[in-house]
Write a structure and sequence with these properties.
This protein has 544 residues and is α+β, with helices and mostly antiparallel strands. The protein has 16 helices and 22 strands. A hairpin with a 2-residue loop joins strand 20 (510-511) and strand 21 (514-515). Helix 8 (154-170) runs antiparallel to helix 9 (174-196) and helix 13 (373-384) packs across helix 16.
């Protein structure tokens, strides 16, 4: 598609159609829905049903009127359904179960594990009332969805199968009982294997070369962070890492992340994990590929849904950009607050238009408006680093376009000042000698987590190249703080580099064996002739 030909008209249509991606925390305090949901569970468990109903009503209103995210609405509906079912108010409960199922099918598709959960709930509801003819098809479909899912919920799958076995016992159908009992054995076996190691290549076999299950010696759980709980951040992070022969975790890769704060917490935690040196059954050293999935906040809804909602209405856009299902956000990259503007407490906003191609790649980002030029550049650089699964229309991948507005101030969740940044800014203003240059360190810190920047399609196609030099601080924990451009010819590549580097994590800088704050710099080369741009590793250079 030639996006340049239609871009001017397209942007006008985009603004007229109101196809904007917006943060769900725009109109309410982050974490309100989650806190209400937790309160509901407490009241439900302790039998305080009147109070549980009142909280459930508040939760549903926020889900429907503010968050407007289907899976979250479905959870609020489930709360009502379970509450009324507990009180044997079956006529009240059934419509909530049914509506929850309808929403999940519409938003997530008929084969999503969350749909299986709704089917299981409704099937169990009918079974408890002796309506076995209505319960059976619900439970059968739930089990089938879990069986074919990439990451099945084994507990829910087993529950559906066990319910079916009970139905067949009551109906005296021994052949169906035998078939489901065999299925239940398979479910439990798969659950045990994947609980030990989800990587298919490490599944245990009779072969002596097969690796033994990993044994974790040190494990840090990022979900126990008080800061994340207080900020009310929900979502999930899927990470993949390599376990070396000596049990060290190396080369982490973030496959999915719904919030930069969650990504940061996961990276900091898993880099501290330690494993017993992995061996094969024959006792030979071996390397593992290790997957870890961390869910934050409520676990009752599809936590792949991020803190942002993509537009579902596209009828007013050119036909090339209309879709049935919007792009799915895989990785949300952080936004970089320009160093000088952060230092001088300058606030503002920027709005961009984003085009996502049928491969899920961000093809183009156009700055629509900005209260300060650097806010526009930062927002564009951030969106170019987001990762998506493509939109679909009639089951086929297609193009998508949406607008996004980013606010810059010290209070918005994506730009608030963290304690480490505040500490460094204070030292800068006081010209503190505690900020060390790299030449005074015991050794240059090594990057432990180093995602690479995307190379925009239109720049690489035109052969536009650059070597961007970025300066930043590494705090005592190894996190990157306050990155800024030291040298660059191309603004677009410069801000993509800033965004990428802000995600990195290093070994803590040391001076005389003690962790310190260090100022360092790196060169990032964009070479249009390099077909393996993402394979390179970047190393620090000295800052005097």
């Amino acid at each position: 598609m030639n996006t340049k030909i239609t871009l001017g008209l397209l942007l006008n249509a985009l603004l007229m159609a109101g196809c904007s991606l917006f943060p769900t925390d725009k109109d309410y305090r982050p974490g309100t829905w989650e806190l209400l949901n937790m309160e509901f569970k407490d009241f439900y468990r302790t039998g305080q049903y009147d109070r549980a109903e009142a909280v459930a009503q508040q939760s549903l209103q926020i889900a429907e009127n503010t968050l407007r995210a289907g899976p979250i609405i479905a959870v609020s509906l489930d709360n009502f359904a379970l509450l009324y079912q507990r009180q044997k108010q079956y006529r009240k409960a059934e419509p909530f179960f049914i509506r929850s199922l309808e929403i999940r099918e519409k938003v997530l598709g008929p084969f999503h594990p969350a749909v299986a959960l709704s089917l299981s709930n409704l099937g169990s509801f009918y079974q408890a009332q002796g309506m076995l003819d209505r319960a059976e098809p619900m439970l059968q479909r739930s089990a089938t969805i879990q069986e074919n899912a990439l990451e099945p919920d084994y507990s829910a799958w087993a529950k559906s199968v066990e319910s079916l076995i009970e139905i067949y016992r009551l109906a005296n159908q021994p052949e169906k009982i035998l078939k489901r009992e065999q299925e239940l054995m398979i479910v439990k076996a798969r659950s045990n294997l994947e609980g030990e190691d989800k990587e298919p290549s490490t599944t245990r076999t009779a072969n002596d070369d097969a690796p033994l299950p990993l044994e974790i010696l040190v494990e840090i759980d990022p979900r126990e962070s008080d800061e994340l709980r207080e900020r009310g951040i929900k979502g999930r992070v899927l990470a993949k890492s390599r376990i070396t022969h000596d049990g060290q975790l190396r080369d982490p890769v973030i496959i999915e992340s719904s919030d930069p704060a969650l990504e940061k917490a996961v990276i900091e935690a898993i880099l501290k994990h330690r494993f017993k040196p992995p061996l094969t059954k024959a006792g030979k050293p071996v390397q593992h590929t290790y997957h870890q999935l961390f869910s934050f906040g409520s676990a009752d809804f599809d936590e792949r849904i991020s803190s942002y909602i993509l537009p579902s209405k596209t009828n007013d856009l050119p036909i090339e950009f209309q879709y049935d299902k919007p792009p799915v956000i895989k990785v949300v990259a952080p936004v970089v607050y320009a160093f000088s503007l952060r230092r001088d407490d300058v606030s503002g906003s920027a709005k961009v238009a984003v085009i996502v191609d049928p491969d899920g790649d961000v093809r183009e980002v156009t700055i629509l408006e900005a209260t300060h030029p650097e806010f526009g550049l930062a927002t564009r650089g951030m969106m170019q680093c987001w990762e998506f699964e493509p939109a679909t229309k009639d089951g086929k991948r297609t193009w998508a376009i949406f607008a996004f507005e980013q606010k810059f101030n010290g209070f918005a969740r994506s730009t608030e000042i963290n304690p480490s940044t505040r500490k460094i800014l204070k030292k800068i203003k006081a010209t503190s000698p505690d900020l060390h240059t790299s030449q005074h360190l015991d050794t240059l810190p090594v990057a432990l987590y180093q995602p690479q920047p995307p190379y925009p399609y239109h720049l690489k196609k035109k052969g536009i190249e650059d070597t961007v030099v970025v300066q930043f601080f590494i705090d005592e924990e190894g996190a990157v703080q306050l990155p800024r451009i030291f040298k660059a010819e191309n603004d677009e590549l410069a801000w993509i580099t800033l965004t990428t580097v802000s995600r990195w994590h290093f070994e803590p800088p040391l001076r005389q064996g003690k962790p310190v704050i260090a100022r360092v710099q790196i060169p990032m080369k964009f070479d249009s002739s390099n077909e393996h741009e993402s394979d390179k590793r970047i190393f620090l250079t000295l800052v005097k």
